[in-house]
Amino acid sequence: TYVDTAYPGITGTASRSCCAWIKTDTPARDILTWGQNSAGRKWRMWLEAGGGLRVEVNGGFHFGSTFLADNEWHHVAVTLEDDGTPDCSETLLYVDGRSEATGGIGSAAIDTDPAGMVRIGMSDYHQTGFVGLIDDARIYDRVLAPEEILWLAGRTTPVHQPFSDE
Question: Global pTM?
Answer without folding.
Answer: 0.92
